[in-house]
Amino acid sequence: MIYSVIVDLSASEVDHIFDYKGEGYVVGTRVLVDFRNRPTEGVIIEEKSRSDYDESKLKTIIRALDDFVAISPRMLELGSFMRRQYHLHWADVLRLFIPAEMRGNRIKSLSRQQICLVTNDSLDTILSSLKPNATMQRDLVTFLYLNGSTLAETINREFGNSALKALKQKGIVSSQDVVVRRIPYKDIKMYGAGKHILTLTQQNAVDTVLSDRKGRFLLHGVTGSGKTEVYLTIIEKIVAEGKTCIMLVPEISLTPNMLKQLRERFGDTVALLHSGLSAGERYDEWLRLKNGEAQIAVGARSAVFAPLTNIGAIIIDEEHDSSYISDFNPRYNTAEVADFRAGQEGALLLLGSATPSLGTYYAACRGKLKLIEMPERINKQPLPTVEIVDMTLETRRGNKGIFSSVLKERLAETIKAGNQAMLFLNRRGYSSFMMCTKCGYVAKCEDCDVTLTVHREDNRLKCHYCGKSYYILDKCPVCKSDSFRQGRIGTQQVVELLNKMFPDVKVLRMDADTTQTKESHGKILESFSRGEAQILVGTQMIAKGHDFAKVTLVGILDGDQSLHHEDYLATERTFQLITQVAGRSGRDKDKGSVVLQTYTPGHYCLRFAAKQDYIGFYKYEINIRQASSFPPFSEIVRILYTGEKEQDCIDELVEQNAAITNLKTDNPTAFLYLDKMRCPLKRAEKQYRFQILIKLSKDSVNRLIPQIYAICDSKKRRTVHVSVERDPQNLS
Ligand code: ADP
Ligand code: ZN
Ligand code: ZN
Predict the structure, then answer these.
(1) Which domain holds residue 129?
(2) Distance 463 CA to ligand 3 centre (A)
């Protein structure tokens, strides 16, 4: 038989598919093959009777690497869809489908010695064969009789080695190697704990979803409306019917606390796929799913590749979260992948969010997804009141600080009442804009209506969409003031100020600097939830997922920052962030309040966010998107050129840009925008960065994307790396 094998070479720019000879292998098996005289890992993707090459020269597969088929035919089908859709290489796609440690044979199943009884005799019969004074031996036998086979180390510890040895010699017990699974949070065994009786709204949501087992749904429920309980109830129901489920959550909400809760609720039927687990745990959780020992996979975006069969439901919580779109190789869109898998399996797909992405809500409005609304919080708790504080007024009154007088007052009240506060700094992106602190005017591009970015190196303002450059302002064109703010405040600075204002109050800080490791992230949150500090200061990391009963005040220090970010998603992101942060406040009995500081209090995004009026915001923003033909009314494609040799990048870009310009000439209505430029982030990790930005009309995307991919594939320079991103979430 001839087998086509994808040879797994890292950092390879093309697919290496080669034919090998062999007998009795199954497609999807990982195998060891001889490649350029080296034993190399690969995956069989096809079986055929003839090769197009000279069969006498084909080498033979050395051996299979696992005693199971690692990649099912459906996953291969998914892989081939992803290759076409995202322009990926086979090796990169297949790597997503198996735990990293499986490659290079770096991890194996763990087997441990277990002790068990040899005979099936009754306990009395066995005991009668032992001396009455051999207490340890008698205890050991009784223990094994009651508990079944047990780890040798436990037996040794409890009953001592000599008793064990004696019983082995008598042939009463024996030892054998047994595979044990490294299960995270294994000690937690409270199957079915933590269930709520559903509210009518929740029950309706569950019923609607379960009434169409192949449906596509969007659950739009305000923060605190009890979406999680809806997901878990659906999962329970589907698993009870003998099917399996995948639930995806943003990495950041996979806190130890949440993982424990899942284990309590689902026991060993849930497998957790999480980067915070040890390599052994990750591998074993994957195997438990693969072997059908666990039916529910929960994890961050890569859990969409969980090795499950017979899937009944795929659920994506916080659907709008940008972490669902992978922005490094291999790039993919999790919701699209989930949709494809759900289609293969005849499963339902449920997306949920308090602030759905505009594209998703638009799809729901057009009937592509069934929309389910949960407009109220559990127990009808009111949403927090949001006070918008006009920081330009504060400036005019002479307060040039970070804290408005309102926020200072609210903080003092909160601390006095013994409650907790969260202060939030909005620091997305790395670039800074220029803003008049008197009137809130922000410098924008004349051609694109996107915010200009300050480039300090050459002291210019630049548009990241069209590349146009402007002089740095010395006077505000609106109010003639010369007081500008650029750059941003840091969390460190905020903590120092708080320490001065409230010397007796304990303040915790959480941002990228304080959370280098996964545990430190969890530790800070746990410490805060135990009430060890009264104020938590953080970046968007504190925006979602966490449920702190004692938090009654949320302060957003710089509501403008991401609003003036240079991409078209900025407004949507700001709305999502403010709504999510505000949702942290007043989750318990006490009503929460939110103070939102801004230099542009009239901005529609902030007005809608203050009222937590998603639908109002959606209607306003979708009109703008339509008028300016931004997604979902078009698709943005970015081709990124990176390399250590700047001139090579430029040459490659210029050549490919010429080809794309020809494509544009042939398809004049399809290209709504096309330009080439240096990336805002000019150089990263020694690599120069350039890009071509394209905006395609929606109806031309499927036709033109393969042609754009083909142009990228025509790359000539080995020193340049070319990649294509569809709907990039980050244009740095
Ligand atoms: P969301 O995910 O929509 O923001 P959560 O799922 O976090 O909301 O639920 C908010 C709170 O309400 C949680 O503390 C949860 O335990 C609680 N809760 C959810 N459903 C119920 C219910 N049916 N009865 C009582 N409490 C509930
Ligand atoms: Zn001004
Ligand atoms: Zn511009």
Answers:
(1) 110-180
(2) 5
